[in-house]
Design a protein that fits this description.
globular; five-stranded mixed β-sheet; alpha/beta; Aspartate Aminotransferase, domain 1; seven-stranded mixed β-sheet
Length: 392
């Protein structure tokens, strides 16, 4: 069966299906595998991305999920880690050493920001931060012969700002990396633009059910194999059980993304017209300042909507407390609508001035749309908006 002829939604549905005809992916929980003889054991011990030697080196179920993501991304190879931050740390610390230089953006997920601001300096890795939307700044920050890595998160979390993938892919010299967690390969495929590596927190939309913690790195085979060698030493090994759940989750990725994006656009439109809301950040809106770029490199606006209340912190807290259907939780991409207040949750470890510098206000809300009926979720949001309006 030639899967290359299939649309990505179909490829996701077929992921992990066994050659023996089993419709569900196989779960292999073993952490160690017996060899036929000494020569066989020796071969397994040095084979990149080996799945039948030792669990820290690889596992059949884990690799099945990695292979599925590689197919969806149009990559030659992929490996998994125990979390999204495990994948990002593997790329950054596996590619860089003392004296290396990284160019990245100010608008980053808090864990990634901590890696670049707190961990990299300890190892003598220099980091230059630029505005994600300023393409000229990206190009100017790259130092030929010194810059090892250019790391981009697009759309950014939680502000949903975009980097120009065409411009990023055209950068020669350093390894280019895109964290595409907020999009998934059904919305954008960075490797198609010449980017070297794509990473995901597969905990989010790829697995999609809030029951797996995973990261994945996909790209050119030689590069992925090199990172696999570092990952084996680092020990950020993915769970076979989580990978099995993620393979199951991939089967519904197409229909989940379609419903979540439709709900997100509807909610973004409602928020844009409400007087309690100062600004809405959603690439699918015609009024979004990067709408032209979004239309060029994204199939849709994505499943998350971010917005800022006129009434600031008090209005944001009043809003989330008034919700009945949506959950207040720090993740995204699951089947339920999840609401996050970055100032008191995902980015709480940053000082107010640090949050403001990366575009996160005290009244900002990131909403990850679920699979509820549109009328139910919009009714819940509109009721909570009325409560928040009293704080404006």
């Amino acid at each position: 069966m030639n899967r290359l002829a299939h649309h990505p939604e179909t490829a996701a549905l077929l992921a992990g299906r066994s050659a023996e005809g089993g419709l569900a992916p196989a779960l292999e929980p073993s952490t160690a595998f017996g060899a036929a003889d000494a020569a066989d054991a020796a071969r397994r011990a040095v084979r990149p991305r080996v799945t039948d030697f030792y669990g820290r080196y690889g596992n059949p179920t884990v690799q099945a999920f990695a292979d599925a993501v590689a197919e969806l991304e149009g990559a030659e190879a992929a490996i998994c880690s125990s979390s999204g931050m495990g994948a990002i740390s593997t790329v950054v610390l596996g590619m860089c050493s003392q004296g290396s230089h990284v160019v990245t953006q100010r608008q980053l997920f808090s864990g990634t920001l901590q890696l670049f601001t707190q961990v990299c300096p300890r190892f003598g890795i220099g980091v230059t931060f630029v505005d994600v939307e300023d393409t000229e700044a990206w190009l100017a920050a790259v130092e030929p012969g010194r810059t090892t890595l250019v790391f981009v998160e697009t759309p950014s979390n939680p502000t949903l700002a975009l980097a120009d993938l065409d411009a990023l892919g055209a950068i020669a010299g350093p390894i280019t990396v895109v964290d595409s967690t907020m999009a998934t390969p059904l919305i954008q495929r960075p490797l198609d633009y010449g980017v070297d590596l794509v990473v995901h927190s597969a905990t989010k939309a790829l697995s999609g059910h809030n029951d797996a913690t995973l990261g994945v790195i996909a790209g050119e085979k030689t590069l992925v194999n090199e990172l696999w060698g570092y990952a084996v030493v680092q020990g950020s090994s993915a769970s076979a059980f989580d990978s099995w759940n993620a393979l199951r989750g991939l089967k519904t990725l197409g229909v989940r993304i379609e419903r979540q994006c439709a709900n997100a656009l509807q909610v973004a439109s409602i928020l844009s017209a409400h007087s309690a809301v100062a600004e809405v950040f959603y690439p699918g809106l015609d009024r979004h300042r990067q709408r032209e770029l979004a239309a060029r490199q994204m199939a849709s606006g994505g499943g998350c909507v971010t917005f800022e209340f006129v009434g600031g912190y008090e209005a944001a807290c009043t809003f989330v407390d008034a919700l009945h259907l949506a959950y207040l939780a720090p993740s995204l991409g699951g089947p339920e609508t999840l609401v996050n207040h970055p100032a008191s949750m995902t980015h709480a470890q940053l000082a107010p001035a640090e949050r403001a510098a990366i575009g996160i206000g005290e009244g900002m809300i990131r909403m990850s749309m679920g699979l509820e009926h549109p009328d139910d979720v919009t009714a819940d949001i509109c009721s909570a908006l009325q409560a928040a309006h009293t704080c404006s």
